[in-house]
Protein backbone atom coordinates (compact mmCIF):
# COMPACT_ATOMS: atom_id res chain seq x y z
CA UNK A 1 0.00 0.00 0.00
CA UNK A 2 1.17 3.50 -0.82
CA UNK A 3 0.55 6.06 1.93
CA UNK A 4 -1.61 8.97 0.95
CA UNK A 5 0.20 12.30 0.82
CA UNK A 6 -1.14 14.80 3.33
CA UNK A 7 -0.44 18.41 4.21
CA UNK A 8 1.63 19.18 1.13
CA UNK A 9 2.56 22.80 0.48
CA UNK A 10 3.69 24.28 -2.81
CA UNK A 11 6.04 27.25 -2.64
CA UNK A 12 5.59 30.28 -4.82
CA UNK A 13 8.56 31.40 -6.90
CA UNK A 14 9.38 34.16 -4.41
CA UNK A 15 9.16 31.78 -1.44
CA UNK A 16 11.34 29.24 -3.24
CA UNK A 17 14.03 31.87 -3.85
CA UNK A 18 13.97 32.95 -0.20
CA UNK A 19 14.25 29.33 0.94
CA UNK A 20 16.99 28.49 -1.58
CA UNK A 21 19.13 31.53 -0.71
CA UNK A 22 19.01 30.70 3.02
CA UNK A 23 17.19 33.89 3.95
CA UNK A 24 14.63 31.72 5.70
CA UNK A 25 15.92 31.27 9.26
CA UNK A 26 12.99 30.42 11.53
CA UNK A 27 15.13 29.65 14.59
CA UNK A 28 17.78 32.36 14.10
CA UNK A 29 16.12 34.85 16.48
CA UNK A 30 15.55 32.19 19.10
CA UNK A 31 19.24 31.28 19.08
CA UNK A 32 20.31 34.92 19.45
CA UNK A 33 17.92 35.49 22.36
CA UNK A 34 19.14 32.43 24.24
CA UNK A 35 21.62 33.86 26.74
CA UNK A 36 24.26 31.41 27.83
CA UNK A 37 24.28 30.52 31.49
CA UNK A 38 27.54 31.09 33.40
CA UNK A 39 29.64 28.01 33.92
CA UNK A 40 29.75 27.32 37.70
CA UNK A 41 32.92 25.22 37.40
CA UNK A 42 34.79 28.02 35.67
CA UNK A 43 33.81 30.41 38.44
CA UNK A 44 34.91 27.88 41.07
CA UNK A 45 38.35 27.57 39.47
CA UNK A 46 38.69 31.37 39.37
CA UNK A 47 37.76 31.59 43.06
CA UNK A 48 40.32 28.94 43.95
CA UNK A 49 43.03 30.95 42.15
CA UNK A 50 42.10 34.09 44.09
CA UNK A 51 42.41 32.42 47.49
CA UNK A 52 45.76 32.80 49.24
CA UNK A 53 47.55 29.54 49.75
CA UNK A 54 47.48 28.17 53.29
CA UNK A 55 50.79 26.32 53.13
The mean pLDDT is 71
- What percent of residues are in strands? under 5%
Query: How much helix is in the residues?
Result: 40-55%
Alpha carbon gyration radius? 25 Å
Q: What is the tally of helical segments? A: 3
Q: Which segments are poorly predicted (pLDDT under 50) over 5 or more consecutive residues?
A: none
Shape: rod-shaped
Through-space gap between termini: 78 Å
H and E order: HHH
Which oligomerization state do the chains in this entry correspond to? single chain
The profile of the biggest β sheet is: none
Beta-strand segment tally: 0
Structure classification = mainly alpha
Biased composition (Basic and acidic residues): 43-55
Region (Disordered): 29-55
What key phrases describe this protein's structure?
mainly alpha, rod-shaped, 55 residues
Amino acid sequence: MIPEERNSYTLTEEEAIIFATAKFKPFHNRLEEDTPQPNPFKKLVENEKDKPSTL
